[in-house]
TrEMBL record:
Protein name: MaoC family dehydratase
Lineage of producing organism: Bacteria, Bacillati, Actinomycetota, Actinomycetes, Cryptosporangiales
InterPro entries membership: HotDog_dom_sf (IPR029069), MaoC-like_dom (IPR002539), MCH/BMMD (IPR052342)
Residue stretches making up the MaoC-like domain: 17-133
Coiled coil (UniProt feature): none
Family label: Belongs to the enoyl-CoA hydratase/isomerase family.
Source superkingdom: Bacteria
SUPFAM superfamilies linked to this entry: Thioesterase/thiol ester dehydrase-isomerase (SSF54637)
């Protein structure tokens, strides 16, 4: 009987100009937002104080943008990098064009925008991801460019 273990893609399996949709989405709860916000010592009233947030242009508390970013990237892991990533090398062009609120569902997709073999680390390559997060109304709520170091496929005797 053959056995398959879920993993991300090896460097050689990534393709540019392909949209990878990550499912299922993640519905964000009040508890998620409050826990993340307090764990990270972010005392911003827009995340914690319902009465304060009600008086803002948003009319309610916002989901912490760092939680949104973390969840956006996390939604891609099982499909793209589970067990194959070596390291995150950096993030750039992070944007939050619309807010995410308690009860919203975050859906993620990723496009690979660049691939190159590592010049300093044989057996690994550099992959640039362009992540996009949308809510249940298909509004873009977060975007980020992430550069990673990913393992190449090991020799056949190790797979």
């Amino acid at each position: 009987m053959r056995r398959e273990v879920q993993r991300g893609l090896w460097f050689e399996e990534f393709e540019t100009d392909v949209v990878y949709d990550h499912r299922p989405g993640r519905t964000i709860t009040e508890a998620d937002n409050v826990l993340f916000t307090t764990l990270t010592m972010n005392t911003q009233a827009l995340h914690l104080d319902a009465a304060f947030a009600e008086g803002t242009a948003f009319g309610q508390r916002l989901v912490n943008s760092m939680f949104t970013l973390s969840t956006l990237v996390g939604l891609s892991v099982a499909q793209l990098t589970q067990g194959t990533i070596v390291a995150n090398l950096g993030f750039g062009a992070v944007a939050f064009p619309k807010p995410l609120f308690h009860g919203d569902t975050l859906y993620a997709s990723t496009v690979i925008t660049d691939l190159r073999e590592s010049r300093s680390r044989p057996g690994e390559g550099i992959v640039t991801f362009e992540h996009t997060g949308r809510n249940q109304h298909d509004d873009v709520v977060a975007t980020a460019v992430r550069t990673t170091l990913v393992r190449k496929r090991p020799p056949a005797e190790y797979t």
